[in-house]
Design goal:
The complex is a heterodimer of chains A (158) and B (195). Chain A is built from 1 helix and 11 strands. Chain A has 158 residues and is mainly beta. Chain B has 195 residues and is an alpha+beta fold. In chain B, β3, α2 and β4 form a beta-alpha-beta unit. In chain B, α2 packs across α5. Chain B starts with a helix and ends with a helix. The chains are: A mainly beta (158), B alpha+beta (195). At the A-B interface, β5 and β6 of A face α2, α3 and β7 of B.
Chain lengths: 158, 195
């Protein structure tokens, strides 16, 4: 399990560094040595009770940091998850120790990978809305963020 | 992981041995049939009311996919992507069905599944097995599923993310992997439907 997490994490780092070069940063939030880029979510299906949050987290400092937890106004049940594919099986793992944000690196929370998981939603999140929440880091402390809720199929292969 | 590889290798060895034995004893090549047949008869509660009986699907190719409504990524993505292709094929695929079978019948009732599939193309139809039926259909389709506890005392599910494309004689025709590109997805559906 730990191996899977580490592989996911390494993959996320690699892709993040590529994506980082390719796209500009909209909605950047600075918190200490961290730069949080474009927190977003997608409209969740009616009848579903979960949604996922994505963003990039860049650590410009020389010390490692760690995302310990996330909160959101829409639910008290927010978790940090890693999704991986093991062959044709989708595996979902909670990351109880948080998500490491190594010094000098950018970690990308994105579909099919690391994400913030909003659970137990009373109603779906809708495109055009904002989800207000916080991220709690070991070093950078608590940061307020707004997730932009995008189309239901945002970030899917078309 | 290693165990999976080992079983995979054993399985492969068994299949190769069987082919060799067949060829050796019959002096011919085996007929072109899927070496591992995927699928089996089922009769499951449907989100459209009543039941879907696989016996009634003879002559009607269909797609079948396993997931659950508390699924953040694989299930909505797959169902949106299938819906996009169905929209493109339009009336040419009007009798085609994408069956979405829940692997979480403890939470996914027929009503919950009906609300959920309403997000997608109307040809996406949810099927809700009992726990016993789920064991059987998962075995028949070689689908893996497992509950994964979460820190809030609840759980999420690991599950096979493949879409199985079944021909009109209830044999596996092809599969679509999670995240496969839309052109390939469309081409596979067109081939299945002879379009």
């Amino acid at each position: 399990m730990r191996l899977i997490k580490e592989i996911t994490f390494a993959a996320a780092l690699t892709i993040a560094s590529l994506a980082d070069a390719a796209m500009g940063h909209a909605d950047e939030i600075k918190a200490g040595n961290l730069i949080i880029g474009h927190p977003w979510s997608r409209q969740s299906p009616m009848g579903g009770s979960v949604a996922a949050g994505f963003m990039t987290i860049q650590n410009t400092g020389t010390e490692d940091d760690r995302l310990l937890k996330a909160t959101a106004e829409i639910t008290s049940n927010v978790q940090l998850h890693a999704m991986t594919m093991d062959g044709d099986v989708m595996k979902m793992a909670e990351m109880p120790d948080g998500i490491p944000i190594p010094a000098g690196q950018t970690v990308e929370l994105k579909p099919r990978s690391l994400h913030i998981m909003f659970m137990g939603l009373a109603s779906p999140v809708m495109e055009g809305e904002d989800i207000k929440g916080t991220l709690v880091f070991e070093k950078a402390g608590t940061v307020d963020i707004d997730y932009e809720v995008m189309a239901p199929n945002a970030g899917m292969g078309q | 992981m290693i165990r999976a590889i080992r079983y995979g290798a054993l399985g492969m060895a068994a299949v190769l041995t069987a082919i060799f034995a067949y060829t050796y004893f019959t002096g011919g090549t085996p007929p072109i049939k899927p070496m591992i047949d995927i699928g089996g008869p089922f009769r499951l509660a449907s989100s459209k009311g009543g039941v879907v009986d696989s016996n009634d699907l003879t002559g009607k190719p269909y797609a079948i996919f396993f997931g659950f409504t508390h699924c953040p990524e694989v299930c909505p993505t797959t169902l949106y992507e299938m819906s996009a292709v169905l929209g493109k094929l339009g009336d040419k695929a009007k009798d085609f069905h994408v069956f979405f079978v829940t692997v979480d019948p403890g939470r996914d009732t027929v009503e919950a599944m009906r609300d959920y599939v309403a997000n997608f193309d109307p040809r996406v139809e949810a099927l809700v097995p009992t726990p016993e039926q789920l064991q059987q259909i998962a075995k028949d389709f070689r689908v893996y599923f497992a509950k994964v506890p979460t820190s809030d005392g609840s759980y999420t599910m690991d599950h096979t993310a493949t879409v199985f494309l079944m021909d009109g004689e209830t044999h596996l025709a092809s599969t679509i992997a999670f995240g496969e590109n839309q052109e390939t997805r469309e081409a596979k559906l067109r081939k299945l439907l002879g379009l």
